[in-house]
Hints:
Elements: H1 6-23, H2 33-80, H3 85-103, H4 109-127, H5 135-159, H6 165-184, H7 190-214, E1 217-218, E2 221-222, H8 225-234, E3 240-242, H9 243-247, E4 259-263, E5 274-278
Parallel strand pairs: 3-4
Antiparallel strand pairs: 1-2, 4-5
Amino acid sequence: MKYISATKGALITLPLFTILVLLDPVRIDLPSVEIILTISTFLFAIMSGFYISRLDTRYDQLRSLVASEDAHILSLYKIAQLFGAPFAKRIANHIDLYLIRSYDFPISHYAYKNTAQHYLALWDEARTIKSQQPQTAYQNFLGLLANMEHERNTSSTVAAERLSIAQWAMLILLAINILVSMFGLLTPNWYIQLSIILFASILVLIILLIRDLQNLMIGQTALLEESGQEVLEFMGKKRYYQQVFLDNGMSRVPSHVKEYRLGIHEPGAKKIKIKVVKN
Length: 279
């Protein structure tokens, strides 16, 4: 099933609400509907505003962490080149596997667990360095590895902060209550009808926007996907995309990419299956 962004979702509901308003299949007659609408709208505004603020802060924090981690990964590779081509090649292969596993999972504690072995493999490679000269480069190499773990751990912890089922249920119930109340105010007046259609679609937009922020999807684009893909290109590797996320619309291949690797295995599978695809 294709991932529908908040804007698209709201636009899709516009014709639906238009039909409902014009047909007015159910004439709802509620006593004191204005009071119910006022209270529901007030509570919905408080809850949705709080959730959007909280999730937006989470999004910004994760964006900063991911960008910093990708920068450290590239620096790690460039420093590895100072210790010789064979060592740099091994580091590049570990980073490649690390990023592949990262792209098999959205940012979450699942990604942390599934990339751990490839991250620890970088530490194992650091122990194989016989000559620690230049000393500064070696220290920076270890420092970057330590910083990566901090960013990985923090990203995993922050990404785990999601709305609970109860919070979603309360938000959706309030939205339904607002919709029912608005239909209770429906009149033949075209301005009232137009307002109800727009307000109803905006309700859907707000709920889907909260969902997008929770899923780290803004503008139907995954959080900083390009950042890690460019790291792969700098190392001489082809970009990697997971077929599952391409199929459901959570990931997309830029038009300028002529060739890329496609993961045809299930995310989390022990055996990685990749094929090269032309765009």
